[in-house]
């Protein structure tokens, strides 16, 4: 693990910017997290960046659940969390057998397909199908989210798809997302520590990045208040599509 003192100024700036974006994504603009993950991977080796990003995400989660603690819709969380936990266990065993380069195109295809289906559900006369309310919808996305979050911290777009399909207003959207990731990211900690992704060196580096995450979280709260509901939905979907396309390359 590289020390904070051995990083070039450019790489340090990338990590600080990544931390700020993670903070904003947790409290204001879901979807920015994928860009933050990409910036971290540019600053550090991919495997090392996974542990660094996980701790940054947890720091952002703490701010998010503190502010949106009463906004979560727990029935949606209880539908998906057990399946996501199973996905994390699967992802843990996959880490030594499949790399994220092999997984990313599959994730991107699924995300884009579900986004298209979600748009179709909301704009056609087949709304009585109510596919998002079926148990297997939550099971499928939960397993996929668990696997991808364990392997690459890349479950953000998948959870966004799930919450968009549930039709939540922006405050409940962010609050439900905040509690989901707060729970699941802590579940990942022992697995990541066992794999050596979190260690004394990574924790030291994270302590230097924490102020950027905190600043981003506070900025996200301000931004969220100023974004209208419809604009919020459009921004989230555009960022999710961009993140999915990025996974293809």
Protein architecture, described:
The protein has helices at residues 9-27, 32-43, 46-67, 74-94, 100-123, 135-152, 156-166, 170-194, 200-226, 229-247. It is an all-alpha fold. It has one domain. Helix 5 (100-123) packs parallel to helix 7 (156-166). The longest helix has 27 residues, at 200-226. It is globular and about 55 Å long. It starts with 8 loop residues before the first helix and ends with a helix.
Rg, please? Answer: 17 Å
Number of helices: 10
The share of residues in helices is over 70%
Counting copies of identical and different chains, the oligomeric state is: single chain
Distance between the termini: 26 Å
Structural class assignment: mainly alpha
Counting structural domains, the number is 1
**Number of DSSP-assigned strands:** 0
Average pLDDT rating: 83
Low-pLDDT segments, ≥5 res:
none
Q: Which sequence of SSEs, written as H and E, runs from N to C?
A: HHHHHHHHHH
Range of strand content: under 5%
Q: What's the overall geometry?
A: globular
Q: What does the largest sheet look like? A: none
